[in-house]
Design a protein that fits this description.
- It is a single chain.
- By secondary structure, the protein is mostly beta strands.
- It contains no helices and 17 strands.
- Strands 1, 2, 4, 6, 7, 9, 10, 12, 13, 15 and 16 form an 11-stranded parallel beta sheet that branches.
- The protein starts with a strand and ends in a 7-residue tail after the last strand.
Length: 191
Amino acid sequence: LQGTGSQGQAAAGGEHVENITLEGLEFAHSGQSYLTKPYEVPSNGDFAVLRAAAVFVENATTIKITGCKFERPGGNGVMLSNHVSHSNVSFNEVAWAGENGIVLMGTSALNSDLGIDSFPSDNYVGHNHLHHFGVYGKNSAGFLQAVGMHNTIEFNVIHSGPRSGATFNDHFGTTPQLDSSLSLSLSLSLS
């Protein structure tokens, strides 16, 4: 499922997807996504990420994804890409994802054809259950943020993954915070 607005912020003439709620839906058994398209290195961290997901939102505002279940998405479960703001990803379960559970990923001006920063900001990710992720991609996290700022990440339960529970790939804009979340049984694929 994809919701994509045009490039650029609304003030610069870009059109955004707005005011959409996905509530109580189940997304199950999508095909694997690794090696299907080029992966991006969004920032100076060590993650390469496919800009795709079972639910993919780009250049949008006031999107709500709540109470949904993502059962065995072949790649990422949910992705908020580039300029997504004032959106809410909460009370969801992402189980057995091929790669990452929830991803907030922007594009820095250095990597952008437009020469502008475009990133998720002022979003809420909370009360999610992210588990058994990284089925195919072992460099995966339950939650991943790369080139994002001012997002609230709290009250998530993250467990049973090949590497980290939550990864902040850089310190773009602000120091990231993960509050009141439980992470356990991780780094299962490291030797």
